[in-house]
Amino acid sequence: MVDPIGGGTFSQLLNTINRNRSGLQNSLERISSGRRLNQAGTDAAASALSTQLRSEISSLTQAVSNVEAGANFTRTADGGLAGVSDLVGRGRELAIQSSNGTLNDSQRQALNQEFTQIQSEIDRLTNSLEFNGQKLLDGSLAPSADPVNVQAGSGSGAANQINLNVVESVTTESLGIANSDISTSEGALQAVDDFERAAQTLNSARGQVGAVGNRLASSANGLSSQIENLTQAESGLADTDLAEEVTRLQQGLLRFETSIRALASQIQNEQSRARILDFSV
What we know:
This protein has 281 residues and is mostly helical. The chain contains 6 helices and 4 strands.
């Protein structure tokens, strides 16, 4: 069937207008969304790579959250160790005071009452301190205990995990001060040595926890750098170059207007031709 107005020329103009309109819609969509790859068909290879990069970014972002939770975990453990260390320091201070030969038995008994309370508080703290249900100071985080790992990467291997099992038990029994007594001068002198060793043990434990905390902080920084680099790579691959796209839109508008004017001119010519034919008849 022949087109009543201009035959194939009219159809060609309509096809040109539709193509130009579609190009304008695509440009507007890319500008409004800021994304070049709104559809997989735009660039199949680039779209697949963009999807892979975005998946990796999401995984690493979760790993950062995991590491931050691990840092909170270690800070809680260090805070508990600091509390035990303060109690041990006070206990040693009382032992030194009780070992002084100028005190009588009644005065030493009074000092020993506070000393006993300190021992009880150390055990209460070490047996109760936990993070999200995980005990921290009772030996549950000893190297020989069940592993507690932070998932600090997007893979499943050991290189993607940070182990938190660095805190031995710091109960009075483990520290060797459970049976310390300062009610006598001899007992007080022995307690001075026992609490000194306990203080050294606690300092070492805090050093190990601090080392893990520093490792977690370094891991978080490294992951953040990876995410930033991958985000830039994905952005360069999939985001719209606004300056280029605006230029393309302007060119598309010009082509669209030109095709509309061509269609209007074609219709006007055909109508004029038709009037001439009618007049001739």
